[in-house]
Fold these 2 entries.
Entry 1:
Amino acid sequence: MPQVRFENLGLGLAFLALGFAMPSGLKRYYGKADLHFITFSCYRRLPLLKTERARDLFVQELGRVRDEMGFRLVGYVVMPEHVHLLISEPKQGTPSSVLHKLKLQVSRKMRRGSGYRSAAQSRLQFEEGSEQPRAFWQARFYDFNVYSRGKMKEKLNYMHANPVIRKLVKHPSEWAWSSWSFYAREEEGPVRIDVVD
Ligand code: NI
């Protein structure tokens, strides 16, 4: 329990910092060998990743795109309507090209499996009739350069605490779609995590 309280506290501070820094997150700084803390959302913040199947599929594609593009996946959390990643720059291209590819691959696979239709439909029906969402992802993403070990730890704590803060689970260990188990227990999760030295 004290651990969770600590992470809650950490998240509160990180969240405030994130809120103030949001607009500048659209500005890109590449080629500095920094890590990038990236946040992106489902279309109109609909809970298109609310099923376990959808989150499993996302994590699987994340691993595949990492292997294809050669960036380091340092941390992540998949939430029902948004995702946070902590990654290095890829061997070729930029974090923007990583995001472009990842979003494309995931939305294609989701459409094929129609995994997100029911979740999206139920809420859209409520909002504006039976219209289905045209897109899976919100167009933009937020990108913050992480330039120190301290910042890296802060972002990892922030990500791992997300499901607890949102009351999806009581402890980060109960949320399978994050890098928590790798850092807390040195356990392989659903996708390999790349250690930063
Ligand atoms: Ni979040």
Note: The first helix runs from residue 2 to 21.
Entry 2:
Amino acid sequence: MKKETILKLIIISCIILFFLRIIILKINNNNNNNSNSNSNSNMKIIFVGDCMFGRNGNPFSKTPFINVESLFKEASHIFLNLETTISNPLLNDNYKEDKVFNYQSTGEHLLSLKDITKKPIFTAIVNNHTLDYGLKGLENTKKFLRNHKFIHTVKQKVEHNNVVFLNATDHCGCNDPKFWGENVIMIDYNNLEPIYQKIKNISDKFIVFSIHWGPNWVKGEMDQKIKNFGRKLIENGVNIVFGHSSHHIVDNPIEEYKGGIIIYGLGDFINDYVIKPQFKSGKALICVINKKGKKLSYETIEVKRNFVKEGGSIPFLQ
Ligand SMILES: [Zn+2]
């Protein structure tokens, strides 16, 4: 074969390979787009309650989610209530708000969750510890979450792939509720219309509303006022009300209501609190909500909070 012919053949082969490569890339891209646009039709969403990682830099397990790893890996979305300021380095006591308990930690414990899953993690940061270390503490927390791609918000809705997330609290456990009210959404049960209006303005989205509600210790079921609020949120368009605050599993912790789901209280997931046997606060629930099309169903998995030698108490599957 002539040298010229060989050269021609090589050039033609290269051109064919080049176009083949482009076609393959296009097919892959289309597949990805399809899976993205369908990503919310089916979801497996994990909800857990309060997570705090010790106080004053006390020793604490660096891998607090280690025993629930297998479950978390299966989830398409994760929601948790972050009950602590995150600051690295830790802020000094001058930043402390006048409260009985002020929580802050360095964030490495929360970050260990990113080693377990790359799926979206929605972090509720509006609760009675949001401003434990003042505005600087809140700024540091937001910076940490932003840098590590945890989805979060303070006052406005945040949206991720068609999931809209909002968070609020009905108490601050502080001496300056005005300060809290100026910086986070504080629920006033006598004036709920603005909250409902906020939700009504969101259309065609899957809405999760996180609410830190009620007392630490609840005798029996949640208060009627709280139940009414949760149900009204659903009636106004919320799909899942993610309630938390009680240090233990409340009676009837989850309710299915008009196609939505209301979580009243799953108990504390990670912390350093002593266990109150009369409330069985050493137990907590993981709530797994399955979304198939528009239909929601849920299951619960009980965990036991045990103290570990590294510090703190972390969940163990039963
Ligand atoms: Zn709380």
Note: The longest helix spans residues 3-37.
